[in-house]
Amino acid sequence: MKFNPFVTSDRSKNRKRHFNAPSHIRRKIMSSPLSKELRQKYNVRSMPIRKDDEVQVVRGHYKGQQIGKVVQVYRKKYVIYIERVQREKANGTTVHVGIHPSKVVITRLKVDKDRKKILERKAKSRQVGKEKGKYKEEAIEKMQE
């Protein structure tokens, strides 16, 4: 069901906006989920991917246990290139295979001061959400007193 009358749900308009998105919006679209350990540690579900993050492919032909470093984030094509995810061309040269960031899990973040700030901000907003919700029985009893 549509809730906001000012946001379109037209498929062709959404596709147009996706494929004509500017670089700063593509960064956000190219987010990857964090591994269970990182999710526990930072209390954040996903982050925009960047070069030097370590990732594990979880879907598609290249899925498996090996963990590789992100070599390049190619925003124009909506793909990332990972260290050991390569294939051989007909002439024998090896090339990196582009993988969509939603099909990988980040296992190690490259944390600098800006990224640390983003992690703290995202974790803080999740804490606010946890406080909302149903009233506990003790809280109701205190209100009645």
From TrEMBL:
<keyword id="KW-0689">Ribosomal protein</keyword>
<dbReference type="Pfam" id="PF00467">
    <property type="entry name" value="KOW"/>
</dbReference>
<protein>
    <submittedName>
        <fullName>60S ribosomal protein L26-like</fullName>
    </submittedName>
</protein>
<dbReference type="GO" id="GO:0003723">
    <property type="term" value="F:RNA binding"/>
</dbReference>
<keyword id="KW-0687">Ribonucleoprotein</keyword>
<feature type="domain" description="KOW">
    <location>
        <begin position="48"/>
        <end position="76"/>
    </location>
</feature>
<comment type="similarity">
    <text>Belongs to the universal ribosomal protein uL24 family.</text>
</comment>
<dbReference type="InterPro" id="IPR005756">
    <property type="entry name" value="Ribosomal_uL24_euk/arc"/>
</dbReference>
<dbReference type="GO" id="GO:0006412">
    <property type="term" value="P:translation"/>
</dbReference>
<dbReference type="InterPro" id="IPR005824">
    <property type="entry name" value="KOW"/>
</dbReference>
<dbReference type="InterPro" id="IPR005825">
    <property type="entry name" value="Ribosomal_uL24_CS"/>
</dbReference>
<feature type="region of interest" description="Disordered">
    <location>
        <begin position="1"/>
        <end position="21"/>
    </location>
</feature>
<dbReference type="GO" id="GO:0003735">
    <property type="term" value="F:structural constituent of ribosome"/>
</dbReference>
<dbReference type="InterPro" id="IPR014722">
    <property type="entry name" value="Rib_uL2_dom2"/>
</dbReference>
<dbReference type="Pfam" id="PF16906">
    <property type="entry name" value="Ribosomal_L26"/>
</dbReference>
<dbReference type="InterPro" id="IPR041988">
    <property type="entry name" value="Ribosomal_uL24_KOW"/>
</dbReference>
<dbReference type="InterPro" id="IPR008991">
    <property type="entry name" value="Translation_prot_SH3-like_sf"/>
</dbReference>
<feature type="region of interest" description="Disordered">
    <location>
        <begin position="122"/>
        <end position="145"/>
    </location>
</feature>
<dbReference type="GO" id="GO:0015934">
    <property type="term" value="C:large ribosomal subunit"/>
</dbReference>
